[in-house]
Amino acid sequence: MNRSSCKVSTTTFSIVAVDMQKKELGFAISSCSYNSGLVCQAEAEIGVIASQAQGNLAFLPLFFEKLGEKKTLKSILSHFKKTDMDIESRQIGMITSEGEKLAFTGKKCAFWCGHRTGEDYSCQGNILVGSKVIENMAEAFENTKGSLVERLYAALRAGDDAGGDARGKQSARLLVKKRRGGALGSDTVTDITIEDHEEPVREIGRILRVKENILEGRQLCKATEKGNPEALAKLEQFLKDKEDRVYIDFWTTIADVFFEKAIEEKAVYYYKKVLQISPKMINLLKQNAKTGKLPREIAEAILKEHGAH
User: In angstroms, what CA-CA distances link 5 with 76, 201, 237, 272?
Assistant: First the structure.
């Protein structure tokens, strides 16, 4: 490799980690630079790498190529050192699906820089406000219970709360992979990227909470549609503080369920909520009234307050 090969300048702090029991792996990263996640890559049941500071993106595919050749992380790092004349400007964190991990911080990385490895993880960062960033990340990962997503976010949030990147904030990414563990059989369990945001790490946290709410809402809706009365009560309680377009399908579901149960008063109430949250849904309600899917008297009760008939 020469001096012009795929170099990316990115000040950042990151964690690469695995959950061997659940066969999940991934990374979390934040930086004052745009697209901080560019310098990381994860492949289900193989490994994860972060190549940062004066990052060399050529390391990413090479890392997986060498793992395919059954090379150890020590030998992979040795290869990087032998083939890259700017290696002392690099910072690297690597981990395999079996839990082998290794980190490297070049002598020319900008202060504060350093890394820390532990069971099933490696944390690394450069141009940070101090060593507390990495220390707090590691401690948060070690002490947090739950899924790999939750532990990675806890680590990233701890680093951010400790001051993170000395130059400020702009982007963050959290990714977890598991073989066929994602939607529609994909390997991606979670992949959240935030760009050009005042609080990118906290925004990841907000999106994770929304995702959890959506998953819970879907489960409650499925159970409700199967006639589970307890689930219906829980769905009503769940929706009390969620008058937002993100949850519009759940509001429609509960309105439909009460309509099917012939509990018209509640059906009308929830259909009105649907229109309050998403006024453009009025066209669908009109269509349902026209085709007979919704009785005219109920449609009129719903549409009356909206000045439409």
Answer: 18, 30, 56, 59
- DSSP code at position 5: S
List, for residues 152-190, the tens digit of each pLDDT value: 999 999 999 999 999 999 999 999 999 999 989 999 999
pLDDT at position 106, please? Answer: 97
Residue 47 one-letter amino acid: G
Residue 8 predicted with pLDDT over 70: no
pLDDT digits (tens, 9 = 90+) for 73-105: 999 999 999 999 999 999 999 999 999 999 999
The residues with which 7 forms a beta bridge, in sequence order, are 56
Question: Amino acid identity of 67?
Answer: L
Q: Per residue in 138-169, is it b (16+ CB within 10 Å) or e — as a string?
A: bbbbeebeeebbebbbbbbbbbbebebbbeeb
Beta-strand runs (E) in 90-170: 90-96, 101-105, 114-118, 121-125
Q: What is the CATH number of domain 213-306?
A: 1.25.40.10
- Distance, in Å, from the CA atom of 150 to the CA atom of 163, rounded to the nearest integer, reads 20
Give 59's DSSP letter: H
pTM of the model: 0.90
Residue the block writes with tokens 């008058």: 243
Q: Does domain 7-198 have CATH number 3.40.50.300?
A: no
CA distance linking residue 69 with residue 75, whole number of Å = 11
Q: How far is CA 79 from its chain centroid?
A: 32
Residue 132: CB partners within 8 Å, gap ≥ 6? 162, 163
Q: Going by C-beta distance under 8 Å and a sequence separation of 6 or more, which residues neighbour residue 74?
A: 102
Domain ranges of the chain: 7-198, 213-306
